[in-house]
Design brief:
The chain has 16 helices and 4 strands. The protein is mostly helical. The chain has a 4-stranded mixed sheet with strand order 2-1-3-4, with helices on both faces. Helix 3 links the parallel strand 1 and strand 2. The longest helix is centred in the middle third of the chain and has 30 residues.
Length: 384
């Protein structure tokens, strides 16, 4: 046990004696969290500036404009056709919607009016706005048809009925929102929390990958020859190094969790669940490092190939951006990388207020990864 402890302390000192280690382990993940957390924050995305040209000036055209404005997905303003085209040409607005004269008459005659939506090809949100316009058009055609029938039966003016139906449809009465969460204080996972968890995972993996390169470095420099000339066994060497890697990972994770809690207001959730999940994630990362070390010859090669693997799998696993924006096929492939299951576990704890029981599944998957990586890696590592 004394030899194992000596190897562990030696490796810890070796890592933290390097000034660049602090930048990689603590500075970079906090910087990436800040940049990407703000980048994908919904609060930081400006709404598209859309102008409406209403050439019909009718009850139904005004109702359509009010409906579009109520969606709260774009900044709407009214302009005449000339000013709208001028502002669009000068790139002062994202686009404009034109409601031609005869819009109301066409709807009342049960025809399908054409709404012109002009936008720049570079505007990525065009499809969403087109869908909103189409949905609003369908709604107003139904309301107008119902109002006309009501007028025929009762003799009342259809405009009053149309306004009443539209106002009733615009309310949320009768709709009860029920957020699915185990903890009422944790209803949503803000983007900063997601990015903080993701980049903490990424840089812990990179740091441990560099640390596990000591196996190759020790073999190259002859350190293992000198250690094995003492009564220290191979088993003691391996246990000492693995414990050192595990502690290095926990020190890094612990510091980043503490800083992100106070700086980015991240709520990590149940601490026992965090301990189980992070421990499994660290073991999986150590296993990945040994797995890569078993297939390369030098620590430099391990660093190059390892960083390539980690960065690419982090992109796939949802570290850099939300998985929801990725194609469905890529979301399914993401389940075959450890980062995905790490983020799933953090989502259970930080979003839904779960406990240790709720992270048993992702932790179990991480342990399966660990067993595979360690088995292959340990069989390929050579002490001589």
């Amino acid at each position: 046990m004394r030899r194992i402890k000596a190897i562990m302390i030696f490796e810890l000192k070796r890592i933290f004696q390097k000034p660049q280690s602090f930048l990689l382990m603590f500075g970079m993940p906090l910087l990436f969290t800040f940049i990407f957390g703000a980048l994908f924050s919904s609060d930081s995305e400006p709404k598209p500036n859309i102008v409406v040209v209403d050439e019909d000036h009718s009850t139904l055209s005004k109702a359509l404009i009010n409906e579009l404005e109520s969606k709260n997905i774009m900044e709407l303003s009214l302009e005449n056709a000339k000013d709208a085209r001028s502002k669009f040409d000068d790139q002062k607005i994202t686009g404009y919607i034109r409601i031609d004269k005869g819009f109301e008459e066409q709807i009342l005659n049960k025809d399908i009016p054409v709404i012109i939506f002009v936008y720049s090809p570079s505007f990525n949100g065009a499809k969403m706005i087109e869908q909103v316009i189409n949905d609003s058009m369908v709604k107003h055609r139904i309301v107008a048809s119902a109002s006309s029938v009501y007028q025929e039966i009762t003799g009342d003016n259809w405009k009053g009925v149309q306004e009443k139906i539209t106002n009733e449809l615009a309310t949320s009465d009768g709709i009860k929102n029920i957020p699915i969460t185990k903890n009422k204080e944790l209803e949503t996972m803000n983007n900063m929390t997601a990015r903080s968890a993701g980049f903490t995972i990424m840089f812990v993996m990179i740091s441990l990958l560099i640390s596990t390169g000591v196996f190759l470095e020790a073999r190259q420099t002859g350190v293992w020859y000198r250690i094995m000339s003492t009564p220290t066994s191979k088993k003691e060497i391996l246990i000492g190094y693995l414990l050192a890697f595990f502690l290095i990972g926990w020190i890094q994770f612990g510091v980043l969790m503490l800083v992100s809690t106070f700086v980015f207001n991240v709520n990590w959730g149940n601490m026992l669940g965090i301990f189980v999940l992070v421990s499994c994630l660290l073991l999986c990362t150590i296993g990945l490092g040994l797995f890569i070390a078993g297939f390369v010859k030098t620590s430099e090669q391990q660093s190059v190939f390892g960083n390539l693997i980690i960065v690419s799998t982090c992109m796939l696993g949802g570290v850099y951006w939300p998985l929801e924006i990725m194609p469905n096929m890529m979301q399914q492939i993401a389940k075959f990388v450890p980062q995905y299951w790490g983020l799933e576990g953090f989502a259970e704890l930080a979003v839904r207020g779960g406990t240790v029981a709720d992270v048993l599944a992702p932790s179990g998957v991480l342990l399966v990864f660990t067993i595979v990586f360690l088995f292959v890696g340990m069989t390929r590592i050579r002490f001589e």
